[in-house]
Write a structure and sequence with these properties.
By secondary structure, this protein is mainly alpha-helical. The protein has 17 helices and 2 strands. The radius of gyration is 22 Å and the shape is globular.
């Protein structure tokens, strides 16, 4: 990751990994493949499948997803601009809003959430390996029994599979950003081939018969359907919120903003909706072909009972999930933890901290059922959404697109982003108020109807609060 021969800002707030990059060679195709890796994962498949089982009609779910991905596209393009301009990662860019030391708080929040997602994705990929082993080696069934051979919520076989995927990801990460770029260039597209082959095989088994009626239908009113579609939009935004926030970690390597925008267009609206249609088709086909609706792609592959599809499908699912995990979670957490003490913690050491945290959190307890999936997304969203809006409002409205690059690494009290003791109390207050509001929305029974909208509420509240506090406290705003 560090680039030899490049002079970067010195001092306690910098290291070779957090310094502005000078060599940029990510073209638009790299961003397309980045989004393929982020979308084409077991978690993405399960999340989309959970939306189609909410009781909404298919049209409402698709409408909610289209609106969500257009907003994700817009937000990623907006987040990309300052990082691509300055060549800096998210934890450095966020210093402009929160102060050079205050930025540690939102970066640490993002890092902890990245660790949680990293563990969830690792566990989901390892489940495919467990099913694969049980299919070919039935004698290992007792080792998959949590009550006979298990600890901390995982069976012995589950632990072996989890640690195998965990080590494989660490090996790819350790080779640096270029190795990660090359890995996701093929891991993301590969799953298209597997799902297309699986769908063709399922269609043959059903003799071409399939229908939307196999999905749960709640007979909802027009207003309830509209509310459900908007809930799908909010939950999808929450799902993408981690990489929206730290998209600057990747935009900084873009050859130009034109490449970033072009890659985002093909990778988000186009690629995402194509994947949605594939997931929908596959889930619908499982009912007539396998006897019941199956939301887990790994389980679908096993139940189809084809050794070739099982082998190729399992390897591809694992590879695709590793792709999203490294790009969306491992990279971000490494930068975020390095930012805590740049002179002591390198990018790779930050990654080690993240990988250990993914085991300690036992995140497989957060994503086991559709209800837990939605609750997890709500909780993650209420923390990340305000940080995203504060970053955008600060750069585009408060700072008026001005970026003092040297001040991002400066502890001089008169510099632009020092504020008060290195912290901007306005941004921190806006974040605190927004998180409290989000927690009330998620956990207060009287506000249960708004629970799935926690991301939108947090995003709007954070941006408005930061904008108003900055406007009415001009002393907190130092011109770059």
């Amino acid at each position: 990751m560090a680039q030899s021969g490049i002079v970067f800002p010195s001092g306690p707030l910098s290291n070779a990994d957090l310094a502005p990059v000078q060599e940029r060679h990510w073209a638009w195709r790299d961003y397309l493949f980045l989004w393929m890796s982020n979308v084409h994962s077991v978690a993405g498949y399960l999340t989309l499948g959970s939306f189609f089982t909410m009781g909404l009609n298919v049209g409402a779910v698709l409408a909610g997803l289209v609106l969500a991905i257009l907003l994700v596209h817009l937000l990623c393009n907006l987040v990309a601009v300052p990082s691509q301009k300055g060549g800096v990662p998210f934890p450095v860019m966020i210093r402009a809003a929160f102060g050079v030391y205050g930025a540690i708080i939102p970066a640490l929040v993002r890092g902890v959430i990245a660790v949680g997602w990293y563990g969830i994705q690792t566990w989901l990929a390892s489940n495919a390996i467990v099913l694969f082993v049980l299919h070919f080696f039935p004698s290992t069934l007792s080792y998959a029994d949590l009550h006979r051979h298990g600890a901390l919520g995982l069976s012995m076989l589950g632990w072996a599979a989890f640690l195998s995927v965990w080590l494989l990801q660490l090996a790819v990460f350790w080779r640096g950003m270029e190795a990660i770029r090359h890995f996701i260039d093929w891991a993301g597209p590969a799953i298209y081939g597997v799902i297309l082959v699986l769908d063709a095989a399922l269609l043959i088994r059903t003799h071409g018969q399939w229908h939307f009626s196999v999905l749960p239908q709640g007979g909802l009113s027009i207003s309830a359907t509209a509310g459900g579609a908007l809930a799908v939009t909010s939950l999808t935004l929450a799902y993408f919120s981690p990489i929206i926030l730290n998209f600057g970690d990747f935009a900084r390597y873009g050859i130009s903003m034109g490449d970033v925008r072009r890659g985002n267009f093909w990778g988000l609206p186009v690629n995402f909706m194509a994947f949605v249609l594939l997931v929908l088709t596959t889930i619908i086909l499982t009912q007539p072909a396998l006897g019941r609706l199956v939301l887990d792609p790994a389980e679908t592959i096993v139940l189809f009972d084809s050794q070739t599809i099982l082998l190729v499908g399992t390897l591809t699912l694992v590879a695709a999930t590793i792709g999203i995990n490294i790009s969306a979670n491992f990279v971000s957490a490494a930068f975020d933890f390095s930012n805590i003490a740049p002179s002591s913690i390198s990018w790779r050491q930050g990654g080690i901290i993240a990988s250990i945290g993914a085991i300690v959190l036992t995140p497989w307890n957060f994503y086991a059922h559709p209800e837990l999936i939605h609750l997890t997304l709500d909780i993650l969203g209420l923390f990340i959404a305000p940080v995203t809006s504060i970053l955008l409002v600060d750069y585009y409205i408060v700072q008026k697109r001005q970026l003092d690059l040297a001040a991002l690494y400066s502890t001089t009290h008169d510099d632009t982003y020092w504020y008060s003791l290195g912290m901007n109390p306005r941004a921190l207050t806006a974040l605190g108020l927004s998180v409290i509001l989000g927690l009330l929305v998620v956990f207060l029974p009287a506000l249960a109807a708004l629970q799935n909208f926690s991301w939108v509420i947090g995003f709007v509240a954070g941006g408005i609060a930061h904008g108003l506090l900055s406007h009415f406290s001009p002393a907190a705003r130092k011109e770059a």
